[in-house]
Amino acid sequence: MPEQRISDQMLVEDLLSSQKFLMSNYNMAIYESANPQLRNQFMEIHRQEQEGAQKLFNLMNQRGWYSPAPADQKMISETQAKVQQQIGQSQQQIRF
Q: Is the dihedral of CA 47, 26, 18, 76 positive or negative?
């Protein structure tokens, strides 16, 4: 039986996927932490995970393994307007 090897691309893709999973879990832990010191610790770990994910993304992008399509200015403007509208609606709903 021939030996199967994991390619560098597959390895980095798996690492980036793991980083995304970790960041989503730390994100949830941040929101659900009642203890300020614990929340701050989770926030620092989350920041470090983001930096690691960015490095993996940059590596993949440089090697042509991950090339997201660039967003055009119209799409960016529409998304910004939609987000601002949602923020406004949320602020109106959360009046204490």
A: negative
Residues 9 and 65: beta-carbon distance below 8 Å: yes
Q: Which helix (H) or strand (E) holds 67?
A: none
Q: What is the pLDDT of residues 28-42, one digit of tens each?
A: 999 999 999 999 999
Confirm if 24 and 76 have CB atoms less than 8 A apart: no
Look at residues 29, 59, 60, 64 and name the one whose alpha carbon lies nearest to residue 43: 29
> Rounded to whole angstroms, what are the CA distances from 65 to 14, 70, 73?
12, 15, 25
